[in-house]
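ok trying again, last paste got cut off:
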Amino acid sequence: MFLVALGILLGRPDVSVLGVPMILSFVWALSHPPTMVPQISVGDLVSVPGSSTVSQSLGMRPAEGVDTVRFRVSAVGYSAVEALVDVSGPRTFEMSATTVRTGRRQFFGVDYRSQGRDSVLATDPETIGPSSVLLLPRPLWLQELPLPFQLHGLTGSHDSRRPGEGGELRDVALFAPGDRLRRIDWRTSARRGSSTGRGQQLYVKRTFATADAHIMLVVDPFDVVGPDVSTWSTGRIRSDHMSSLDIARRAAVSLARLWIDQGDRVGLVDLGREGRLLLPAGGRRHLHRLTHHVALADAGREAVLHNRAPQIPSGALVVLFSTFLDDDPAHLAQMWRHQGHRVLAIDVLPRLIRAYLTPEGSLAHRMVMMDRSDRVNLLSLSGVEVVRWHEGERGVGAEAPVTPLMTLARMRRRHR
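nice, full thing came through this time. structure:
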């Protein structure tokens, strides 16, 4: 249109002729509007097993009069991606993203608008998604873990302190009513036994009984923070940084898997969901159920002060996962220790990045960390065993504190 008008004003027919094809194309596009809208569909959002990648398929079916579709794909924590796609035939694309986060996450919000011939006509923007997926934490391999002061049951994989069947040698004693014949030590009987009026005295080997351990995992989903201290006030955590809750989920699943593999019984308390108690049990099926519950732990509500500690089975080992940035979890740990439980506090605060703090932020951070240090020291003085769960390199992984856990495993003692 501009060239035609310019040619008329200047008296240049050759200039006007240049604009005629454009006008004809515009009129043709207006006279042949799209009669249908392309069918846009998305598949199920899936996580790739054994990796930190999530993917989803995006399918398109063509429509009469529609040449292209403009897409904008976005997700929280990621830069949006835009593309102009030719839909002259059926098309399928794969959307994927990599994350180290766990729990309930949302990915791939798709905004699109259809465009007619030469992009003269376009529809209003439409939206599909985002889709939600539950990302399960991947456990780490551990070797040896602490046990509670008291063991339970009549059988298991650990040696108890009471006499019974299946454990290590306790002593050698004279045969008494109730002893089994297969426990007679014939060599000791021949060497030490003396003949009486009733015959030769017999000696038997007595053993310790075996039992299993009861463990309660307690997840504190409040005060979720990332490695970058400058983001603590906003609550926004980068997608390539593990939050404290992500580390807690991974630590809980890692510990639970080894205990359950040993034949112990593991339960779960989620402090963020009152009344949700998963009783101690064993087996692979229970491990899958526990992993699912741990992945669902989230700070969906404001923290509630627990004046009374959640009920824990008698004699169980309590393992509390928290950042200890406030008094509530530390208070619960002390209450459980005073009730006679062995309490293991797993500190899941990430390795901190302070490079982007302002002077005021640095001062506030120092005050918060001083309070936290005093809180952790009081826990140690009250008999709670504190273990730091280290974060991996560059804030994108977690490393199990193998040596401290093995040291605590060898320090099992009788509760006084």
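cool. The longest strand covers residues 158-174. The two ends are 95 Å apart (CA to CA).
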